[in-house]
Write a structure and sequence with these properties.
Blueprint lengths: L7 E3 L5 H16 L1 H11 L7 H13 L4 E5 L5 H8 L5 E6 L2 H10 L4 E4 L12 E7 L8 H11 E12 L1 H4 L14 H6 L3 H20 L1 H5 L3 E3 L23 H10 L3 E3 L7 H4 E7 L4
Parallel strand pairs: 2-3, 2-5, 3-4, 5-6
Antiparallel strand pairs: 1-7, 6-9, 8-9
Helix pairs in contact: 1-2
């Protein structure tokens, strides 16, 4: 497949057979020990750390005064530790797809609950948590709308789902989409004497991709995903968001939530850092 092809479709109304194949591929990528090791190395790298957003999400969760929370995509417990540092003393459950990661967490934090599984089939009852949260997870969901619906199902009336995710539409960037004729940024390609490749890559990154991201929902349908993310095409070290599939947009998530009668709030606003790193709260009515 050409590096320049945008192999995108709606996860709710597009090529659903290929979406199912993508879901199986990504589930294996996150849970198999060999690919999980590559992925975990990326997560633990300095370039993937987001201390500002991490602390803001922890504050937003704690500010709701929950007694029980569920984290989707808990990884090795970074957000669990951030919650404790922010003063949270209630019950915590972490959900993660890697059995090895969950077993490690159970050994390190035996006083909390750690579940191995998918957001689409988690063992949580309706209304079983005061708050459900996910730290840079939604963009990795092949079925983002289904993930949102499931997380909301677990929340009691009066509770909320809190999410952070990159707003790719606002960023004009999408790390899982290969661009240009060859790998490498324009400066590297120029240094190697690849003038045409440098020009095509620069055009793709500055003009073509941002325009495609802005029109993704209109062209492909709701909750569009990349059917050919870079992480399953490359075998070397991963970079940030090379495994992202959902073309995440806070405008789309907000519209979806408001159509369902949820109260939407942005605890840190939508400017500056939080223009491209969305922090959104979706609250249920009731008490």
């Amino acid at each position: 497949m050409s590096r320049r092809r945008f192999d995108w479709t709606s996860s709710t109304a597009g090529d659903l057979d290929r979406v199912r194949q993508l879901d199986a591929t990504m589930a294996a990528f996150y849970s198999r020990p060999d690919t999980r090791e590559r992925y975990q190395a990326m997560l633990d790298s300095p370039e993937c750390q987001q201390p500002q957003t991490e602390a803001a999400l922890a504050r937003a969760v704690v500010a709701r005064g929950p007694s029980r929370v569920i984290e989707v995509g808990c990884g090795r417990g970074r957000m669990y530790q951030a919650l404790r540092a922010a003063g949270y003393a209630g019950a915590y459950t972490g959900l993660e797809m890697s059995a090895e990661v969950i077993e490690r967490n159970r050994q390190l934090y035996p006083d909390q609950t750690w579940e191995c599984g998918s957001v689409y089939a988690a063992p949580f009852a309706d209304g079983s948590a005061d708050a459900v949260f996910a730290f840079f997870v939604l963009e990795h969901c092949v079925y983002p709308e289904r993930a949102l619906a499931e997380m909301l199902r677990w929340v009691r009336p009066g509770g909320a789902v809190l999410l952070t995710f990159p707003d790719f539409v606002e960023m004009g960037m999408f790390g899982s989409q290969p661009l240009g004729l060859r790998a490498g940024n324009a400066k590297e390609l120029l240094r190697r004497g690849r003038l045409l490749c440098a020009c095509v890559g620069l055009y793709d990154s500055r003009v073509r991709l941002p325009a495609a991201l802005r029109s993704a929902v209109a062209k492909h349908g709701p909750f569009p995903v990349n059917l050919s993310p870079w992480c399953v095409q490359e075998t070397g070290p991963l970079g940030p968001d090379m495994d992202a599939v959902y073309i995440a947009s806070k405008a789309e998530v907000r519209a979806w939530a408001e159509q369902r009668g949820l109260a939407v709030r942005f605890p840190e606003g939508t400017d500056g850092h939080y223009r491209i790193n969305a922090l959104i709260e979706l609250a249920k009515g009731g008490s």
